[in-house]
Description:
The protein has 156 residues and is an alpha/beta fold. It has a single domain, classed as 3-Layer(aba) Sandwich (Rossmann fold), CATH 3.40.50. It is built from 5 helices and 4 strands. The protein has a 4-stranded parallel β-sheet with strand order 3-2-1-4, with helices on both faces. It is globular and about 45 Å long. It starts with 16 loop residues before the first helix and ends with a helix.
Amino acid sequence: MRRVENGLEMLDRPTPAAERAASLADVERLNARFGGDALTLRWVARVLAGLPAARPVRVLDVGAGGGALAVRLVEWARRSRRSIRVLALDRDPDSARLARGAAAAYPEIAVVCGDASALPVRRGGVDLVVSALTLHHLAPETAAGALGEMARAGRL
């Protein structure tokens, strides 16, 4: 697929904080309605099914946006009686701020502002890496580097 020249989405350019928050809220509603997060949660459950339930799990959410997926991961883990730590990463400071707000009631979530092509974790530093609706925001060469970083960071 070819990348559209100058085909930037609102989230790819400087946007007033209120507009960014509204856009991310729309994405959350669409994910809830059409099952985007549910697909990710099913995959996580399947991958973790082979691990003892008592084993703590570390997840990195790359391109966390407003933090909705990180929150859903923690809620799933609580229902499943699993110990989980989620590191939610987004390159945009306003999105990271929104994610911190969403995660305020979830001590299992830490939010950082960072770059998908230079993840702030060591090799194998997390069990799982998730990334939803993120790669299309990156140039192809950057996306390839980000995928390499995700593979480096995750153990499972």
